[in-house]
Design goal:
The structure holds three protein chains of three kinds. Chain A is of the alpha+beta class. Chain A contains twelve helices and 14 strands. Chain A has helices at 14-23, 37-42, 78-83, 85-90, 92-99, 104-109, 112-118, 125-132, 149-152, 227-233, 240-247, 264-282; strands at residues 7-9, 28-31, 50-53, 63-66, 69-73, 135-140, 143-148, 153-155, 158-159, 166-173, 179-186, 196-205, 208-217, 224-225. In chain A, the strands form four sheets. Chain A has a five-stranded antiparallel sheet with strand order 4-5-10-6-7, with helices on both faces. In chain A, helix 10 runs antiparallel to helix 11 and helix 11 (240-247) runs antiparallel to helix 12. The longest helix of chain A has 19 residues, at 264-282. Chain A is globular, with a radius of gyration of 19 Å. By secondary structure, chain B is α+β, with helices and mostly antiparallel strands. Chain B folds into two domains: 2-77, Ubiquitin-like (UB roll) (Roll); 86-155, [2Fe-2S]-binding domain (DNA polymerase, domain 1), CATH 1.10.150. Helices cover 32% and strands 15% of the residues of chain B. Chain B contains five helices and five strands. In chain C, 29% of the residues lie in helices and 22% in strands. Chain C has 23 helices and 28 strands. A seven-stranded mixed sheet of chain C has the order 3-5-1-12-9-10-11. A five-stranded mixed sheet of chain C has the order 7-15-14-13-8. The longest helix of chain C is centred in the C-terminal third of the chain and has 28 residues, at 560-587. The radius of gyration of chain C is 28 Å and the shape is globular. Chain C starts with 25 loop residues before the first helix and ends in a 6-residue tail after the last helix. Classes of the chains: A alpha+beta, B alpha+beta, C alpha+beta. Chains A and C meet through strand 2, helix 7, strand 9 and helix 12 of A and helix 4, helix 22 and helix 23 of C.
Chain lengths: 285, 164, 825
């Protein structure tokens, strides 16, 4: 179908964009890659008054290095993220997870920041950002602020972005090298959203797992950390058996939905299996 | 209405469009480029795939205003000097189409894949065209066609027409 | 049967039949020069958009169109009330029993809606955008009625009614009893005397044909003549039915199916939107176009399958089958469309499969529910039958402790027993099930995979392996008019062709069988090139336009080559017979002394004499030197009506990996050997098999139309209705045996549906074989990972799925608003 009519703004700077959002009326939508927004508008499930297109905003694309982090511009496309040498070197799990997003055409348009700001719990990148303990740089008319991942994802399709604010970049700590990482995705058909997926980061000290961070996709209204499993992994021997035992805690304190793909009890089960597999892969076992 | 300038299949156009006009509707209805078709409303089927500044995109999920200043290549513009693109030829040779409705998008996605990966394995082709649905062929001959085209483009020097 | 061809001893042109000709159709399709209906633009054309019911069952108490009528660019808004006197009913051409109940099917609802997606009003706009924008301005008041969704509840005592003016939810009950028909023994007695009886309940989930090209219609009124372009499989049937519905005389109506992007039975229909487009064009005197969105298509174009099958099989201890009893509930949806009731009846005669059952009974009830009507979908009735018999044979094998293949072999019809009349009364024409099976086993690498299965089982591997069989046959070539008549079908099954010899020697072939992706233009050219001895390139095949191809019954039921191709061959032979008279005259010889080879007539024993049929075409055009009393034309028509169906068969084997931890299933290998009779074009045959396999596998693993408790289709987009992509399907290893069909001059049996009919049970049997040792005896289709996991870990068949949409589609209008703050992907 055809979207309902809307006013269109195409700012060229972040300041212009913030102004356009402020001036856009009651219902403003921000168009990044548009790969979720445009279908929803075509189905007339969304009919915004104004669409602010970030496509020409300077400085929001690309990845750069900044001390102990790499900084990904919010408008960097999925395909650019996958191909980026800094991402591959310092946060390969981001490239790995991004490769599983939709299909190559969608990855050419869809953006890193758009996917995170959309905050679909079935989306792959929020759980990865959460596990990496990424930081979100948010611009508003009154200036910039930085929000840690754990505070960024607030509720179903809801983030810490206030009205009138814009996600401009995401800082990813340089963990590769000291941490092993793996994204384990489970879905029914290739281009489908995750039924459940697990982002696992593991830091080993010799024969032991020193520390683990586990992000869960689609196990609740927001991406979640599998805290109980993380706690259970800390200090255990780096063996498959020990990992399996700890992974049994992966679904604790989660509240997944029941839908066509899976009912909640099955998602609970999947979280445990996938956590085990992801941690084993991340720990190189 | 917004004014856009677009180069489509080698021809420059300046047109007025409503911001809500999808690129595919602009191509079909304003330019008469009906070779590109619409197969769904959720960007799953890929029938509408075109190249936007050299990258495959689903033209039902791009606004025409977003293509302002860009170069678009459709199925009608991939052939050169009246000759078929090697991928078009391979789809014919390998019987990679039946009803042909998905074919323009499938060919555009395949050309894009081969630009990234000049010699894909069977599995790489299958994953590379995961964003394009075909209901007729069971995909096997499409996969064959893409691999055959890769072989031909490899021998006939990479790059010619790989990135239209 | 083999690819080895003897080199021809003469210089006669190579035979076209059997050659892997690249398709003539492709040139326009690969370059984007196709004529899809939606590409048509006519001066002054108006656009239709349809207001659809959001509720499954309700009285319409008021429709307020005033706001929509005032909207910019809107030309008219029409409701069911406006069109009530002229819209008639969507026809049902197959009253399967004399007392079948047909509630009538208005194209646009007048007083009551009976399924979500039913048309309630039509907005006519100057542009598509104008029409679509005004949809939400049409205000409809609904008074909800109870919703009937479950077939078993619908047939229980005192059920809610799908149509409250009817007495029950049953449309018909169709019974075939071999004992009563005299084609077999008494079924009850066979079961009473059997050593072993196995009973199962199988569910054929609801499917959606999901052709890639959404439906589209354009109508142009010209005085009292009307031309309709429609994305249809059946322009001829459509024309006849539209004439009967609207009262527009048949000769004033021309229907054109231009390039059609797939159908799979889904465009074998007279759709409400076709009727409405014609009515609106007539009323406004302007050309109109209607094009559906994918969500509209999934919701309102007819669905397929949706049966509950209670299957009982009886056998002795040694594994000789003694009887088969099938009780079927077949969901018609809310209305009867063109052949809705005929679908299960087409299956009625195939449940015995390839086995020698002495006794057989089929008892089917057609049931109304408040869902989208069901109708033909690739295989139509025969996939259901094949699934039931091939699944129950596996269950019987388990019960008897026999190898599933050994059980099949023990009971199938032997090669030397053809022709064989089954308990269902059909005479199977030819075949060799054993040879096909042997070849398929080799293609699969059966022994190694069985060995690997054993290893995985012994080691307790979380990924288990299973192997599943389907040794099937199907009835194809719909077809014999007398048989269709005996089944109360509303039309015949013949097919028509004509051949026009042009003065330059080129040939136009007109076929009544209208393709929508099959490759008729290529295959028919091959047939005619061989018959007439003219170059392949000199043949043009015309179709799909009732003014070009006035007689035809179109394309469905694997009938095109078997019936339509046979008509082409017969027409060509008539051309040769006519040309022979002219050749005899030109060569001053007796007709009896003429040989016709390689496109030329020559006088036997007189080398060097000769006249080609292409030269005769020119001589006929000039008609200067023509035999006395012979009309100057060598063109010919033929109508072919076979006396029997044809019966392709084959053996399909699937090897399946099941991850018992997650329930994920993955086809490891798929091999099949099909006998489709004589192969005209091996490339096209292979393509048809591949496509059929994809759809049959998709039924087993991916696709299901799911309704929630209120009757909303929750698989309403391609996000949730999972048509598999290349990455989700395996490589197929295919092969053929060839036993020519005796019932048509080509020897072809039909191939369009084979892969789709055969593959589904092979896939499910394979998955069950992988986990049978874990106590699993059935898993409902599609085999979602969740269902497989539940069956393995919790028992049962995996149960129902939660009907809520998946996350990606959980964006209702309220939630969508919350995206506003966050930007987007």
């Amino acid at each position: 179908m055809i979207p309902a009519p809307f006013a269109y703004a195409r700012p060229t700077s972040v300041d212009e964009a913030l102004q356009a959002i402020a001036d856009g009326g009651e219902d403003v939508k921000i168009l990044a890659g548009g790969q979720s927004l445009i279908p929803v508008m075509r189905l007339r499930l969304a009919a915004p008054e104004t669409v602010v297109d970030l496509g020409r905003v300077a400085g929001l694309r690309g990845v750069r290095e900044e001390d102990d982090a790499i900084v990904v511009g919010a408008m960097t496309t999925h395909s650019d993220v996958i191909a980026d040498p800094l991402v591959q070197q310092w946060a390969p799990i981001v490239a790995q997870a991004t490769e599983t997003v939709a299909d190559r055409q969608v990855r050419h348009r869809g953006t890193f920041g758009g996917a995170l700001a959309h905050a679909d719990p079935a989306g792959d990148l929020p759980a990865v950002a959460l596990a990496l303990e990424a930081e979100f740089v948010i611009a508003g008319l009154s200036g910039r602020r930085t929000v840690p991942a754990v505070e960024f994802f607030v509720d179903y399709l809801t983030t810490a972005l206030e009205e009138g604010e814009l996600l401009v970049e995401i800082r990813l700590p340089k963990l590769a090298g000291t941490w092993g990482m793996h994204y384990e995705k489970f879905n029914r058909v290739a281009q489908a959203w995750s039924i459940v997926a697990v982002a696992a980061l593991v830091r080993r000290e010799g024969d032991r797992i020193a520390e683990a961070r586990i992000g869960l996709t689609n196990m609740g209204p927001t991406p979640l950390r599998a805290s109980a499993a993380e706690a259970a992994l800390a200090g255990v021997p780096a063996t498959r058996e020990a990992v399996a035992e700890a992974a049994a805690h992966a679904a604790e304190n989660t509240s997944p939905s029941s839908d066509l793909n899976a009912q909640a009890d099955y998602r609970h089960h999947l979280a445990q299996v996938l956590t085990r597999r992801a941690v084993i892969a991340a720990a190189g076992l | 209405m917004s004014q856009i300038s677009v180069r489509v299949d080698g021809v420059d156009y300046v047109d007025e469009v409503e911001p809500r006009t999808l690129l595919v509707h602009y191509l079909r209805e304003q330019l008469g480029k009906v070779g590109t078709v619409v197969g769904c409303d959720t960007s799953n089927c890929g029938a509408c795939t075109v190249h936007l500044d050299g990258e495959a995109v689903k033209s039902c999920t791009v606004l025409a205003v977003q293509a302002d200043g860009a170069e678009v290549t459709t199925i009608e513009g991939v052939g050169r000097d009246g000759a078929l693109h090697p991928v078009q030829k391979a789809f014919h040779e390998m019987h990679g189409l039946q009803c042909g409705f998905c074919t323009p998008g499938m060919i555009m996605a395949s050309i894009d894949l081969l630009a990234d990966n000049a010699d894909p394995s069977e599995d790489e082709v299958r994953e590379g065209i995961e964003g394009n649905l075909c209901r007729c062929t069971g995909y096997q001959n499409i996969v064959r066609a893409v691999q055959a085209a890769a072989a031909e483009m490899g021998t006939a020097e990479m790059g010619t027409g790989a990135q239209a | 049967m083999t690819a080895v061809e003897d080199a021809p001893a003469t210089t006669a042109p190579e035979r076209e039949v059997g050659k892997a000709r690249r398709r003539k159709e492709d040139a326009r399709l690969i370059t984007g020069r196709t004529t899809w209906t939606d590409n048509m633009v006519l001066p002054g054309m108006l656009h239709l958009a349809v207001v659809r019911s959001p509720v499954a069952h309700a009285k319409i108490t008021n429709v307020d169109v005033s706001a929509a009528r005032e909207a910019p660019g809107v030309v008219a808004v029409l409701t069911g009330r406006d069109l009530a006197d002229e819209q008639g009913s969507i026809p049902c051409a197959w009253p399967v029993t004399p007392d079948m109940v047909n509630p009538g099917h208005p194209s646009v609802a007048v007083d009551e809606v009976n399924h979500v997606g039913e048309a309630v009003a039509i907005v006519v706009g100057r542009s598509r955008t104008a029409a679509v924008d005004a949809l939400e301005l049409v205000d409809v008041d609904y008074e909800p009625l109870p919703v009937v969704l479950d077939m078993e509840q619908a047939l229980a005592e005192q059920p809610d009614l799908c149509h409250d003016h009817l007495q029950s939810n049953q449309s018909f009950r169709f019974v075939f009893d071999a004992g009563e028909a005299g084609t077999g023994q008494d079924t009850e007695q066979a079961f009473a005397e059997a050593d072993v009886v196995v009973s199962r309940r199988f569910v054929q989930q609801r499917l959606i044909p999901a052709f890639m090209e959404p439906r589209a219609v354009v109508v142009q009124p010209q005085g009292d003549n009307y031309t309709m372009w429609s994305s249809t499989q059946v322009p001829h049937i459509l024309r006849l039915m539209l004439a009967m519905i609207t009262g527009i005389p048949e000769h004033k109506l021309r229907v054109v199916a231009p390039d059609v992007g797939g159908g799979f039975g889904g465009k074998l229909q007279v759709t409400p939107e076709e009727v409405l487009s014609l009515l609106v064009a007539r009323r406004l005197g302007k050309p109109v176009k209607w094009v559906e969105t994918r969500s509209e298509s999934l919701m309102s174009a007819h669905h397929g399958r949706d049966q509950i099958q209670y299957i009982d099989i009886a056998a002795d201890r040694e594994g000789n089958v003694k009887g088969l009893r099938c009780r079927i509930l077949s969901d018609m949806g809310a209305y009867l469309r063109l052949v809705s009731p005929g679908v299960p009846v087409l299956g009625a005669f195939m449940y015995v499969g390839i086995y020698k059952f002495p006794a057989y009974r089929f008892d089917c009830q057609g049931v109304f529910t408040n869902k989208t009507p069901t109708d033909a979908y690739r295989g139509a009735g025969r996939p259901e039958a094949t699934f039931a018999i091939e699944r129950i044979m596996d269950e019987l094998a388990v019960e008897l402790g026999m190898d599933p293949l050994e059980l099949r072999r023990k009971n199938w019809i032997k090669a030397e027993e053809f022709p064989f009349t089954t308990a269902a009364g059909l005479e199977y024409d030819s075949g060799d099930y054993d040879t096909a099976t042997q070849q398929a086993l080799q293609l699969l690498g059966y022994d190694e995979l069985r060995e690997e299965q054993r290893r995985r089982r012994e080691s307790g591997d979380p990924v288990q392996l299973g192997i599943g069989f389907s040794t099937f046959t199907e009835m194809c070539g719909l077809a014999p008019s007398r048989v269709l008549g005996s089944l109360s079908y509303g039309a015949g099954g013949w097919e028509h062709a004509s051949i026009r010899m042009l003065p330059t020697g080129k040939v136009e072939v007109v076929t009544g069988s209208t393709p929508h992706g099959q490759g008729h233009e290529t295959a028919w050219s091959q047939l005619v090139a061989d018959e007439l001895g003219v170059p392949f390139e000199d043949v043009e095949v015309l179709h799909g336009d009732t003014s070009v191809s006035p007689r035809g019954l179109d394309t469905y039921g694997s009938r095109s080559l078997v019936v339509g191709g046979a008509a082409v061959v017969n027409a060509a032979q008539k051309v040769i017979a006519k040309a022979r008279k002219v050749a005899a005259h030109l060569l001053e010889a007796s007709e009896d002394d003429l040989d016709f080879t390689g496109g030329s007539f020559s006088v036997r024993g007189t080398p060097g004499t000769g006249v080609s049929i292409q030269e005769i075409a020119l001589a006929t055009f000039a008609a200067h030197n023509f035999p006395e009393g012979v009309e100057p034309s060598i063109d010919a028509d033929a109508t072919f009506d076979p006396v029997n169906f044809s019966f392709p068969h084959g053996t399909h084997i699937c090897a399946m990996e099941v991850d018992t931890e997650t329930g994920f299933v993955k086809i490891r290998k798929y091999a099949c050997v099909d006998d489709v009779g004589t192969i005209v074009n091996p490339l096209i045959v292979e393509g048809q098999v591949h496509g059929g396999l994809a759809q049959g596998i998709a039924q087993a693993l991916y696709e299901e139309a799911v309704y929630d408790d209120d009757g909303n289709l929750t698989t309403g987009t391609f996000v949730d209705y999972l048509v598999p992509s290349a990455a989700d399907l395996p490589h197929f290893d295919t092969g053929n045996t060839v036993h020519a069909a005796p019932g048509n001059p080509i020897g072809a049996k039909g191939v369009g549906e084979a892969g789709c009919i055969a593959s589904t049970p092979a896939v499910v049997n394979a998955a069950l074989d992988a986990v049978r040792h874990l106590g699993v005896s059935d898993i409902r289709m599609p085999l979602t990972p969740e269902r497989v996991w539940r069956a393995v870990h919790l028992g049962g068949d995996g149960g129902d799925r939660a009907p809520d949409r998946t996350n990606a589609q959980a964006v209702d209008s309220a939630q969508a608003a919350s995206i506003a703050q966050g930007g987007d992907l």
